[in-house]
Design goal:
The chain has about 270 residues and is α+β, with helices and mostly antiparallel strands. It has 2 domains: about 5-75, no CATH class; about 95-265, no CATH class. The chain is about 45% helix and about 15% strand. It contains 9 helices and 8 strands. It has helices spanning about 95-110, 130-150, 150-160, 170-190, 195-205, 210-220, 225-235, 240-250, 255-265, and strands spanning about 5, 15-20, 25-30, 35-40, 50, 60-65, 70, 75. Strands 1-5-4-3-2-6-7-8 form an 8-stranded mixed β-sheet, covered by helices on one side. The longest helix is centred in the middle third of the chain and has 20 residues, at about 170-190. The N and C termini lie far apart (about 45 Å).
């Protein structure tokens, strides 16, 4: 019987059916809701059920009830619970700036060649092919400039659903941006709810995985590797933050990197 390492704190009761299967994740849906059964390599999250062991069970059905869940009839407990809340903020402005610089340098040096890291370093455009990829890069640069100038809905709408990957890189960027707005709100003590609503309203996706990540980001609920990076940033730890960033960069082909770029874009 598999061992439950963590159970997401935003998983509702329901009868879920298998949507997609990967080595480290089984994605289940019930209507518009998504739950991911994942390995320790993926880690915990607000909608993740993290199981121990080298591989996942070959399951087609997930039933979640109060206090327990079952995978094709195998009943397991809904514990230990995963805490997806934003970390506490303790950094001074200068400590935060130093930590952000260290993470941005890590992204420029280590992110996937086809990630959005070119938004921080134009020399990385050399990893893209002429034609479609370069044209898409130009759209991202224009959108990022719009968002930096305060045209949040306009910029978000321009890149929603744009790009390659299991989840389009535009959606990953916007989810990261939403998490960054929540972190800024926590750090500055300012109400950024209008900005969060503007970005989310323009970013909403029919893609089930993107929609689930964007919903979590709108609520400021974090996945484990992202939460680890945010904890280091919000503590102003410029030594630990790059190590945490590398863990996020390793997620998916470009998804972790594009989420990180969006996070930094909002925090910068």
């Amino acid at each position: 019987m598999p061992r439950v390492l963590s159970f997401g704190d935003r998983i509702p009761c329901g009868d879920y059916r298998l949507l997609s299967k990967f080595d480290d994740a089984l994605n289940f849906t019930d209507g518009g809701r998504l739950v991911a059964v994942v390995t320790e390599r993926v880690g915990g999250g607000p909608i993740n059920i993290e199981l121990g062991g080298p591989s996942l069970p070959d399951a087609e059905r997930l039933e979640v009830r109060r206090g327990s869940f079952s995978l094709d009839g195998t009943v397991l407990p809904c514990r230990p619970p995963y805490d997806s809340a934003l970390p506490a903020a303790a950094a001074t402005p200068e400590q935060m700036r130093q930590a952000l610089r260290s993470v941005q340098s890590t992204v420029i040096a280590a992110a996937h060649p086809k990630s959005l890291a070119f938004l921080f370093d134009e020399s990385r455009l050399g990893g893209l092919r002429p034609g479609f990829e370069m044209a898409m890069a130009a759209k991202f640069r224009d959108a990022a400039a719009d968002m930096a100038a305060g045209k949040l809905a306009q910029g978000a709408a321009a890149v929603s659903g744009l790009g390659w990957g299991l989840t389009p890189c535009g959606d990953d960027f916007l989810a990261g941006y939403l998490w960054g707005l929540h972190a800024r709100q926590r750090l500055d003590g300012k109400d950024l709810s209008k900005a969060i609503t503007a970005v989310y309203g323009a970013a909403r996706s029919a893609h089930p995985l993107s929609a689930a990540f964007l919903d979590c980001a709108r609520e400021g609920r974090c996945f484990e590797k992202l939460r680890g990076l945010l904890a280091a940033l919000m503590a102003g730890d410029a030594l630990d933050a790059p190590r945490r960033a590398r863990k996020l960069l390793a997620m998916g082909e470009t998804s972790g990197a594009d989420t990180c770029v969006g996070l930094l874009a909002a925090l910068n």
